[in-house]
Each structure stands twice: as C-alpha cells, then as structure tokens.
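Got a spare moment? Tell me how you read both lines of this record:
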Amino acid sequence: MNEAPDHFKQAPDGTTYAGDHLLIELWDAEGLGDVDVVEQAIESAAHAASASILHAYYHHFGAGQGVSGVTVLAESHISIHTWPERGYAAIDVFMCGDCDPTLTISAFEAAFRPRTIEQRLLRRGTPPSADIQSVA
C-alpha cells in the first residue's frame, strides 16, 4: 500500500511538524476598508509563497468599516481582519509542505503600505510541551 504524503515540514534540527503559522500585524496601514484591495493582497501573497488557492470568502462590514476574510489554500489558509479606522490589520498565514509564509510579507507591504509590521512565526503540530497550557 502506498500512502500519500502528509506534507509535514522538517526543521533543520530534524524535527517534523505540521506547518509554519505566521502572525502578522500591520499598523498605520492603508486600503484596509476596501474588500477588493484586501482580496487582491491575499491572492498576491498566496502566489508569492507558491501556494494553491482553493476558495476565498471576504465580508465587508460597510462604508468606513473593516473586512474579514479567508482564503483556503491546498497548503492551509490565509485569513485577515481589518480595522481601517485604526489603520490596523491582523493576518494569519498558515502553510504546510514546501510553502514559506514569510514570502507573503512583501505582498502585504505593497498592498497596504503599513508604517509598522510585527510578525511572529510559530511551528504548529510539534509534540505537546510541558510549558504550554491547554484551555479546556
């Protein structure tokens, strides 16, 4: 029997894990209330990381308000929540396999021109750790 690959990643230290989850925060950004700009930015970001887009859904909350949306990828997802009145966006990029979520950052910079970008990269699917508490 030939099993399909699970697309887990392998770190340089040999650890295998499900994927990289990049949390991005944009501050003093532009275009966050325009659903077309947001969707195009996510699409560009997915292409920059060589990800395969399966489906996208974006919801605009009305004039002067934010956008929430998700693009489902064969390699996982990219989601966004924006607060244009504060110039702030929270973006999650989760990718398994050969995709690198850090390659999405330039697309977000080009689309939203933020003054500040903060990012945190997490490895998902590593063995449970004693220093991480579960929420029941």
Remarks:
- The first strand starts at residue 9 and ends at 10.
- The chain has a mean pLDDT of 93.
- The first helix runs from residue 35 to 48.
- The radius of gyration is 16 Å.
